[in-house]
From TrEMBL:
NCBIfam families: PRK13922.9-3
GO cellular component: plasma membrane
UniProt gene name: mreC
PANTHER family: CELL SHAPE-DETERMINING PROTEIN MREC
Pfam family membership, one: MreC
Keyword Nuclease: no
Protein's recorded name: Cell shape-determining protein MreC
Domain Rod shape-determining protein MreC beta-barrel core: 116-263
Family: Belongs to the MreC family.
Length: 287
């Protein structure tokens, strides 16, 4: 307290000066119309700029929520389009105009929207962390897709987060095929470019063209068949010369990946189990 009093006593003339200046400006702008209008206009300009900056800042920080709502809305609208297309096909008996896309393949599955909170691109074994976990219904070995194609497979799950092994991981191994041709192989990434991977084990007798789609084969309980993975960019011989190796331009842009969906694979697992049971039953009868 003593130091405060000494400080005020030592610099009291500055405080008196500031007080008198404040009184002077108040009298000047209050009782002089011209100065008052100048002050009012300037204050409005400054206030308007402050409000504009504040609004822009608020919009920027709300983009994450807006994107999440848009993603959920897009999924709902796309699924509605699929339902209407199926009804129209049933009535007209003509499905030639119905374009196959990711949404059509996923319309019968539950999808869990999620946001990417961490994404690595420079490592050999890249990982992606999403903001949904076991409390949201996410489980290990569920497939993850974006609006453009396959992203990866859920590897680890906690209550509120999950770690995904993306296609850009040397341990990733997704069964894929050439669309409408049924030649299948396994997609793997060997490092380097983040927009390309390789599809191995395509038989030498296979007939296909560059830029044809590569889609999931459906031979596992992770992804249903027909989900877009990418397009054929180049064709090489395998190291042993008995098959083709296809360089695939990935459909998912991992550098800008923000919003994804986790596919509930309960129905796919049930289908695989039924197929295995039928196969086992047939083998028993043959014996």
């Amino acid at each position: 307290m003593r130091n405060l009093i000494e400080f005020l006593a030592k610099h009291h003339h500055w405080f008196v000066f500031i007080l008198l200046e404040a009184i002077s400006f108040t009298l000047l702008f209050r009782y002089n119309s011209y100065q008052n209008s100048v002050w009012f206009s300037s204050a409005n300009v400054v206030t308007g700029k402050v409000y504009e900056w504040s609004s822009q800042l608020e919009k920027f920080f709300s983009l994450a929520t807006v994107n999440q709502h848009l993603t959920q809305r897009n999924l709902a609208l796309e699924q509605k389009v699929v339902e209407l297309s199926e009804k129209l096909t049933a009535v007209t008996k003509d499905s030639s105009y119905v374009k196959a896309d990711v949404t059509q393949q996923l319309s019968q599955f539950k999808q869990i929207p999620a946001k990417v909170v961490s994404n690595s691109l420079k490592d050999a074994n890249n990982l992606i962390t999403i903001d949904k976990g076991s409390v949201d219904g996410v489980r290990k070995d569920m497939g993850v897709v974006s609006g453009t194609g396959v992203v990866g497979i859920v590897y680890l799950v906690s209550s509120h987060y999950a770690v995904v092994i993306p296609l850009l991981n040397t341990k990733s191994n997704v069964s894929c095929k050439i669309e409408n041709r049924d030649y299948f192989g396994f997609l793997n990434w060997q490092g380097g470019s983040t927009d390309q991977a390789f599809l191995d084990d395509i038989p030498r007798h296979a007939r296909f063209k560059l830029h044809e789609n590569i889609v999931t084969s459906g031979y596992s309980s992770v992804f249903p068949p027909g989900i877009l993975v990418g397009k054929i960019l180049h064709v090489y011989n395998s190291p042993d010369g008995v098959s083709y190796r296809l360089c695939v331009q990935l459909a998912t842009d991992f550098a800008t990946l923000r919003d994804v969906s986790v596919i509930d694979n309960t129905l796919m697992k049930e289908r695989i189990e039924v197929m295995r049971a039928a196969r086992d039953s047939m083998e028993v009868k043959d014996n």
